[in-house]
Amino acid sequence: MRDSVEVRRSRIDGSILCPPSKSYTHRAIVISSLVDDGKASIVRNALLARDTNATIHGCRVLGSYIEVVDDEDEEGISKGNSSGKRGRILIIHGRREFSIGYREIDAENSGTTIRILAAISALVKEGSTLLYGDSSLNRRPMQPLLDALKQLGVQCRSLADGTPPLLVNGNGIEGGYARITGSISSQFISALLIPSVYARHDVELSVGGEQVSKPYIDSTIATMKIFSAVVDNYDYRQYSIARQEYKHANFTVPGDFSSAAIMLAAGALAGSVRVEGLDFTLPQGDSRIVDILRDMGASIHVDTGRGMVHVEESRLDGGSFNLADTPDLLPVVAVLALKSKGSVEIRGVAHARFKETDRIANLARELSKFGAVVKEMDDGLVIIPPKTLSNAVLESYDDHRLFMVLCIASMLTEHSVVRGVSSVDVSYPSFLDDLASIGADVKVIG
After folding, report:
1. Which CATH class is domain 22-252?
2. Pick from 130, 179, 260, 317: CA 20 to 30 A from residue 71's CA?
3. Contact call for residues 128 and 105 (beta carbons, < 8 A)
4. Could you read off the pLDDT of 223-241 as tens digits, one per residue?
5. Burial per residue of 1-39, b for 16 or more beta-carbon CB atoms within 10 angstroms, e otherwise
6. CATH superfamily ID and name for 4-19+255-445
């Protein structure tokens, strides 16, 4: 089978150096691209993966200068201790106001890229920007963001039915008041906050409905603060952004708890895994995996000082989990349910249907192939684990997170096949190598 991996029953044991955070890499690249104080920003431990490469490409198209450096010994960068890092170094010279002209940005599969860069494109001095992506991205909702940008004086529209391609005219952001729903994606909020620093007038943003994925907004505000911009956050219901200036900074991207969660789940399912290179000081919603594993009765040890979490194979308890703020943990908790003593209920993730794929429906379909009894709800799943997992041929729907969790679940079977190998380069290009390095019996086939 083309683009597939064969997985056999495995017992794993070893350490993994956590890959850099995709979310923080996106934000650091974009905000550095808006610094216009004549000095370069240095972003260390940046993740170079398909999604973040799309953001680098888009910022270059808009007019920022981004250089990828292999070693911290390179000219222009002071030496530093790079131990515990597996990312790359970026030197970024930004611009407050992008140059005149028409341009096109291919965001590929990255929702973060297209949503944030759509708002950033309003800062083009004169001209327009066409933004689009692959077939999956071109189905993702964008209209709430476009409506809010229009309220702030930006001329923009969808060339489809509220989805990409998007056309954004330049001439800046007027500012003032805008209202937007919080129930679909926190990326809308992040997209509005980042460029509002340069609006002609202060911006007041009001959020209607239940705000999902709050920790991602915290990540945005934390990164903006590193680059000297302040946002007043009133309980995620209203934001005030005064006119101000981004300033250059040196920023080290933390390890990615979203990726770490998958490897920690692998340890709980099939052996012993230590994930190193984590940073507990910057907000990351998916760090909640530590509490979830504890709640499920996993054998877990956390050393915040060393940035390490160690999980050993455990017979897990069931339970009920609301993942409204951490929808990327839906696939992880879903596969942990396969080894639980009782049922696992996951709620609050209706917005996971608007990710790369409909993760609720697709997880229900694929976990059933293992023999689990799965009830699909509007906003989640109830999973009753089988006594023994059946061998299966599994489809990831070209969704990187589904591919990775189905691989680790397959280690509980005698022989399974998971399709969609090429999707892992979206967020965790070294996933299969890391899994094999700790003893997983995985082999790319086809």
Report:
1. alpha beta
2. 260
3. no
4. 999 999 999 999 999 999 9
5. eebbbbbebbebebbbbbbbbbbbbbbbbbbbbbbbeee
6. Enolpyruvate transferase domain (3.65.10.10)
218 is catalytic: no
Please count the helices (runs of H) and the strands (runs of E) in the chain. 12, 24
User: Which contiguous run of DSSP H or E holds residue 292?
Assistant: helix 289-295
**Among 83, 115, 112, 135, which Cα is nearest to 25's?**
112
Q: Which residue type occupies 371?
A: G
CA distance 166 to 154: 13
Catalytic residue among 256, 328, 399, 434: 328
Over the stretch 2-34, which tens digit does the pLDDT of each residue have? 699 999 999 999 999 999 999 999 999 999 999
Distance CA 91, CA 195 (A): 20
pTM beyond 0.90: yes
Q: Do domains 4-19+255-445 and 22-252 have the same CATH topology?
A: yes
**Is the model's pLDDT at 74 over the cut of 60?**
no
* Residue spans per domain, the chain: 4-19+255-445, 22-252
